[in-house]
Amino acid sequence: MNDSLYFHNPDCTKSKAALALLQLRGISMRIVPYLDTAPTLTELSALATMLGGARNMLRAEEHQAVSLGLGHPDVTDDEVLAAIQAHPILMQRPIFVHRGRAVIGRPPERVLELL
User: Fold this and answer.
1) What distance in Å separates the CA atoms of residue 69 and residue 105, rounded to the nearest whole number?
2) How sure is the predictor about 101, in pLDDT bands with cuts at 50, 70 and 90?
3) Cβ atoms of residues 70 and 98 within 8 Å
4) Predicted TM-score (pTM) of this structure
5) What distance in Å separates the CA atoms of residue 77 and residue 105, rounded to the nearest whole number?
6) 16: which residues sit within 8 A by CB, 6+ positions away?
7) To 5 degrees, how large is the angle CA 39–CA 44–CA 34?
8) Contact at 8 Å (CB) between 48 and 90?
9) What is the pLDDT of residues 36-79, one digit of tens each?
């Protein structure tokens, strides 16, 4: 994952704001509408590594995360990644990948840290 990628939810205000910041700076990236086509487990695993673990990319407050028990300390990273792959709404957004590093754009200005 060395290309610049932007995992985007077009219905999310933070995701739209971070994307606008990158576009204003002329950053070339592939925009990934992850809700339409979920990332593979391999892609999710690479993202988790860059972000310091699968739990860091989990939207733990989402109803599905709670109902699946993903907040339990015994849940493994593999289980979290499988849940995100099956229910992409559980993935934090936006995620910007640039030059082999990744950041979650919350607040949106965080995406600029990778430039």
Assistant:
1) 25
2) very high
3) no
4) 0.93
5) 21
6) 10
7) 30
8) no
9) 999 999 999 999 999 999 999 999 999 999 999 999 999 999 99
The answer to whether residues 54 and 80 touch, using CB atoms and an 8 Å cutoff, is yes
> Which residues are annotated as catalytic?
12
What does the alpha-carbon distance between residue 110 and residue 83 come to, in Å, rounded to a whole number?
26
User: Distance (Å, rounded) from C-alpha 32 to C-alpha 70?
Assistant: 25
How many angstroms separate the CA atoms of 20 and 26, rounded?
10
By the 10 Å C-beta count (0-12 exposed, 13-18 middle, 19+ buried), 69 is classed as: exposed
Structure tokens that stand for 72 in this block: 């339990």
